[in-house]
Amino acid sequence: MVAYSHNAMAGGRGNYVAALRFGCEPMRALVLVSLASAYGSLGTSGIVARHGGTLVLLPRFDAAAALDAIERHRPTHLFAVPTMLWRMAGCASGADVSSLKAVISSTGPVHEHVRDACVRRFGIPPVNIYGSSDGVNCRTARDPGRWAPGPAGVPDPDVAEISIRDAEGRPLPPGRAGEIWALGPMTPLCYVASPDLDARYRAPGGWVRTGDLGRLDDDGTLWVLDRIKRVINRGGVKICPAEVERVLADHPDIADVHCVPVHDRDLGERMCACLAPRPGAVPPSPAALIDCLLERGVDRRGLPERFLTLPELPLGPTGKVSVAALTRLAAEAAVPVDAAGPARRPNARM
């Protein structure tokens, strides 16, 4: 848990919301995530307290109910997570969504199929938000039509200054990847009763170490590459699952994907790719997915060795994929790639 000042919430977060208004009329927002989450807190502190807007809330997320709420309450803004937007776009509902001026997504990357589905259903591309409870925020609101895997937009100093640092905390030049550091009005005061977390994630001058890997381009665009700590340790070899997720998310038969580690007595951990197929699609076989990853240039050492197919990925209270639930399911029911044959078996050697 982190503690914020009033300025961080109404000031920094209010500045963030202001940049999403797209006009001078009062904001009327359908917020589909919990107001108690870091993302959802923009509703009370930013939309209501700072800008005098109106909130439209539902007791729980349901794609059809959310679309009906747009038609009934005519919100100007929709705040959701990528999985919610994807399910809403695929819902067989003829609800009128023409009141929306902006569709905002956060808590995870917006993959190309989600972006395209939003354009088809809502008539506008989603604004992708990169943020965390550590006081970092960046968004693609300046150019929501621009899309590629990874860009988080140009940082707004009224919300948070962004710096890319090496392992020793030294600033890195444009184009170099390192840890994303943040400083600004949204910077929290401290971690509550957790001096160990303060020591680990806060740096001199008020900077916060996010634990995310990124880079800044020459034009100031921030790219978020992965979580530094989200690695799978396979026999001492550190594997980052982000590239696998990006490739599989573009597969025409896959709606959602998330990679988790599964315990292995020999190597410690192996990567499991957890998949949800698109409605009406036949789930691709592990062998076909391995071929797809190899064709897209994924290093053989970074291929998943387990696969789990589910009707849909489990979500936690904030709308993010529940990694704990997914890891448990993977441990119980993941299918090894060995059935694909030795030629396709990834990481056959240490």
Automatic annotation (TrEMBL):
InterPro entries attached here? AMP-bd_C, AMP-bd_C_sf, AMP-dep_synth/lig_dom, ANL_N_sf
Looking at the record, the residues that make up the AMP-dependent synthetase/ligase domain are 4-191
Q: What protein name applies here?
A: Uncharacterized protein
Record domain AMP-binding enzyme C-terminal: where: 243-320
Q: Which SUPFAM superfamilies match?
A: Acetyl-CoA synthetase-like
Checking Gene3D superfamilies in the record gives: 3.30.300.30, N-terminal domain of ligase-like
Enumerate the PANTHER family for this protein. Answer: 2-SUCCINYLBENZOATE--COA LIGASE, CHLOROPLASTIC_PEROXISOMAL (PTHR43201:SF32), ACYL-COA SYNTHETASE (PTHR43201)
Tell me the domain of life: Bacteria
Lineage start: Bacteria, Bacillati, Actinomycetota, Actinomycetes, Streptosporangiales
